[in-house]
Every structure is written in structure tokens, then in C-alpha cells.
């Protein structure tokens, strides 16, 4: 799940905004008049709108991406509820033990039979809630993997090469490919070709223009450095990009 979020952020920041900005800058530098600059800017807007899935042709993909993020939020809420319940239970038990010790110091009975029975009842209630919380997490995990799998299928059938390569990176360890026959066909035939095209052309181009950013002012102000992004990507590549939830 964390890998999915990081890769989507990387895709928007680097592959969409940075690449499109570089192309716009080159076209502006070569522009002969204002009409050329306006045309270059319109092409820039069209490109980022399309690749960010904000145009009318990408509505199905965008809806599926929203479904993925909805499941991520549901999983986060379920996890937070589990942590909160565990911490509250721990705090309650510590307070109960502290109360017993304080009474013993004062020369009283540490706990009465009624209080002990009430404490045992609360412990049983918490223990009974654990399987329910685990079951909820398993159900949410199943739904999450389902919507991610469908999102990957939609990406692999896209006419945009950058989106097809995104599907390859999201499932770099082939976790979903092993579960979905359509991904075995699509990623097998397109993923390797996209990977070669991206690494040879796009990365080489960014190696050239990354350096002048400090003094030229042409880079995007809030974008992550290219070298940092690529270093993180290579580390994920060596690790195998996780299993399980992905």
C-alpha cells in the first residue's frame, strides 16, 4: 500500500510534471513568436491533464484510482481503531494494577471479588474483539487487492506508454501478475518494452537538464530532485518491492 502511494506520487511529480515541464521549456526556448509559446503551453496543459487522469477519456481510470484510495483510507481507519483499542486496554490494565498496589500500601485488600470479576469481564470483551478486528482487516485487504488489480488491468490497456509503464512499476514484484491472467499477457508484452524505452530515452534526457536547475529557474519549485527519486526507485528495485498488500 505504501509502495502504491509512493509510486503514484513519483509518477505525478517526475514522469508527468517534470517531463512535461522540460518539454515546455525546450519549446519555449525554440519559439519564434507568441503563438508558438501559447501552443506549447496548451500542449503542456493537455499532457498533464491527460496523464494525471483528469480528462474525459480517463474517467474510468480516475474512478478506479479513487476506489483504491478509498480502500486505503478504510484500511488506515481500521488500523487506527485497532491501535487505539489496544492502547486503551493497556492503559486500563496499568491503572488497575496501580490501584491494587496503592491499596496494598495503605494496608487494604488489593482488589475485591466484584472488582476482580469486572476486570476479567473487560479482559474477555477485549479478547473477543480481536478476531473481529482481524477479520475486518482481512476483508478490507481483499477488497484493496481487488481494486488495485483492476486498476492495473486498466493501465495496461491504456494507449499512453507512461501509464503502461506505471502499471509495470506498481506490480514490479509481479504479485498481481501471478493472480490475474490479463496482467500476465499485458505486462509481459508491454512492460519490458516500456521499461527499456523509459530508461534509455527519458532518464538520459533528465540527466542532461537536471544540473542547470539551481541557477536557471526552469525547474518546478516543489518537485523532488530527480536523483533522489531515482535512488529510491533503485532501492525498491533491489528489495523486490514488497509482497502482500503492495
Fold and architecture overview:
- By secondary structure, the chain is mainly alpha-helical.
- It has one domain (2-236).
- 79% of the residues lie in helices and 0% in strands.
- It is built from eight helices and no strands.
- The protein has helices at 2-30, 34-51, 59-105, 113-156, 161-170, 181-209, 213-216, 226-239.
- Helix 3 (59-105) packs antiparallel against helix 4.
- The longest helix has 47 residues, at 59-105.
- The chain is elongated, with a radius of gyration of 26 Å.
- The termini are close together.
- Residues 187-246 have low confidence and may be disordered.
- Residues 1-176 form the Gamma tubulin complex component C-terminal domain.
- Its main location: cytoplasm.
- It is found in: Cytoplasm, Cytoskeleton, Microtubule organizing center, Centrosome.
- This is Gamma tubulin complex component C-terminal domain-containing protein.
- InterPro entries: GCP, GCP_C, GCP_C_sf.
Contiguous runs where pLDDT drops below 50 for at least 5 residues? 187-246
Outline the biggest β-sheet: none
Shape: elongated
Distance between the termini: 5 Å
Computed structural class? mainly alpha
Number of strands: 0
| Rg from alpha-carbon coordinates | 26 Å
Domains (count) = 1
**What is the helix content?**
over 70%
Observed structural traits:
246 residues, mainly alpha, 8 helices, elongated
Gist of the model:
It comes from Neotoma lepida. By secondary structure, this protein is mainly alpha-helical.
Amino acid at each position: 500500500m505504501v509502495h502504491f502511494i509512493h509510486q503514484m506520487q513519483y509518477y505525478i511529480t517526475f514522469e508527468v510534471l517534470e517531463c512535461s515541464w522540460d518539454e515546455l521549456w525546450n519549446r519555449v526556448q525554440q519559439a519564434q513568436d507568441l503563438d508558438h509559446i501559447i501552443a506549447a503551453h496548451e500542449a503542456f496543459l493537455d499532457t498533464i491533464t491527460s496523464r494525471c487522469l483528469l480528462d474525459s477519456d480517463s474517467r474510468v481510470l480516475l474512478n478506479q484510482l479513487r476506489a483504491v484510495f478509498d480502500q486505503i483510507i478504510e484500511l488506515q481507519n481500521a488500523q487506527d481503531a485497532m491501535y487505539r483499542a489496544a492502547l486503551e486496554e493497556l492503559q486500563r490494565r496499568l491503572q488497575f494494577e496501580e490501584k491494587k498496589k496503592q491499596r496494598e500500601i495503605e494496608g487494604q485488600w488489593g482488589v475485591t471479588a466484584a472488582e476482580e470479576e469486572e476486570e476479567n469481564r473487560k479482559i474477555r470483551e477485549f479478547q473477543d474483539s480481536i478476531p473481529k478486528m482481524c477479520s475486518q482487516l482481512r476483508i478490507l485487504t481483499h477488497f484493496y487487492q481487488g481494486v488495485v488489480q483492476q486498476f492495473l488491468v486498466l493501465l495496461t490497456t491504456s494507449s499512453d506508454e507512461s501509464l503502461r509503464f506505471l502499471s509495470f512499476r506498481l506490480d514490479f514484484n509481479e504479485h498481481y501478475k501471478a493472480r490475474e491472467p490479463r496482467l500476465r499477457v499485458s505486462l509481459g508484452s508491454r512492460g519490458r518494452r516500456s521499461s527499456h524505452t523509459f530508461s534509455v530515452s527519458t532518464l538520459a534526457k533528465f540527466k542532461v537538464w537536471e544540473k542547470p536547475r539551481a541557477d536557471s529557474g526552469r525547474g518546478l519549485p516543489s518537485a523532488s530532485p530527480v536523483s533522489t527519486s531515482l535512488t529510491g526507485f533503485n532501492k525498491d528495485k533491489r528489495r523486490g518491492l514488497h509482497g502482500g498488500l503492495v
